[in-house]
Amino acid sequence: MSNPTGGETLATLDRQLAKFEDLLNIVAAFFILALMFFGAAQVISRKLLNYPLWGYIDIVEIGMVTFAFLAISSCQRLGGHIRMEILVRRLSGRSMWIFEFIGVVVALAIMLVLVWYAFDAFMRALQLGDSTIDRELVTWPSKMLVPFAFTVLIARLMLQIWGYWRLILHPDAKPIAVPLLADVIEQAQKEIKDTFGDDAPGPVQGGNS
Q: Phi and psi dihedrals of 131, rounded to 5?
C-alpha cells in the first residue's frame, strides 16, 4: 500500500497520543483495583468489626469517575465502543471511509458541546465549593477529570478525521490512526484469546460430521 504525504506525521502523532492514552488506561486500572480492595475492606470491616469505613460511599462515588472517563479515548482508538456496523460492513473503499468520516465528524461536534458543559460544571464546583452529601468531600477534582478526558478524546477524534480524510483522498493508502473493522471470526478469536490467554485454541477448522 502507498503512503501519501502526511502519513508519517499522522503516524507519529498517533503513536504519541496512544502512549498518553495507555498511561490513562493504567491510571484507570489502578483506581479499579484500589476500589476493589477498598470495597473488600468495607465488607470485612462491617462483618467483623461492625464498623463501616469512613466516607466509603463518597469515595467510591468520586473514584468511579476515573475508570468511567479516562479510558474512553483509548476505547475510541481501538474501535472498542458499541456501534452499529451492519451498514458499514457492506461498504468498502472510498464509500466506507466517507461513511466513517461523517460519523467521526458528528462525534467531534457532540464532544465539543459536552466538553464545554463539563468544564462549566467543573468551574461551578470549584467556585461554589461543591461537596458530597455525607462526608462533604470536595467534588471538583473528579469533575475536572471529565473535561480533561473529553479533551483527550477530542484529540483522538481529530486524528481520526485526518486519517479518514487521507483515506478518502487515497483509498489504497495504508490506514493510519483509524480503527479497522474485524470480521466475526477475528473478533471471536480475539475475545477467546482475551479470556484464555496464550492457551486459547486456534481457529475452528471444519471437519467431517
A: -145, 165
Place of cell 451498514: 87
pLDDT tens for the chain, residues 1 to 209: 455 556 889 999 999 999 999 999 999 999 999 999 999 999 999 998 888 888 999 999 999 999 899 999 999 998 876 666 666 667 677 888 998 899 999 999 999 999 999 999 999 999 999 999 888 999 999 999 999 999 999 999 999 999 999 999 998 899 999 988 765 445 556 556 655 666 655 554 444 43
CA separation for the pair 66, 76 (Å, rounded): 16
Those residues with Cβ within 8 angstroms of residue 74's Cβ, 6 or more apart along the chain or in another chain: 18, 21, 22, 24, 25
**CA–CA gap between residue 94 and residue 75 (Å, rounded):** 24
